[in-house]
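Quick one, probably user error.
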């Protein structure tokens, strides 16, 4: 009987250890997901800024082309 209890305690300790490791891994995955989402937001913001600059540049080119056309 005592052997069974000792084995049960060992199993419980092993389960606790495995659960703690799993929880730690899950927390790391959550942290990584948070970081990746932040990076994704940053990249999206940069892309939007770049698109705005491209549009502004295209507008300037169109104005310049119009000026050249009028002077030709």
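Nope, works fine. Designed sequence:
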């Amino acid at each position: 009987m005592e052997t069974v209890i000792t084995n049960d305690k060992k199993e419980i300790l092993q389960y606790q250890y495995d659960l703690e490791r799993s929880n730690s891994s899950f927390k790391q995955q959550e942290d990584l997901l948070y970081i990746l989402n932040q990076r994704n937001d940053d990249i999206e913001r940069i892309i939007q800024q770049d698109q705005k600059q491209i549009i502004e540049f295209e507008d300037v080119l169109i104005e310049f082309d119009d000026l050249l056309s009028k002077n030709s």
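The chain has a mean pLDDT of 94.
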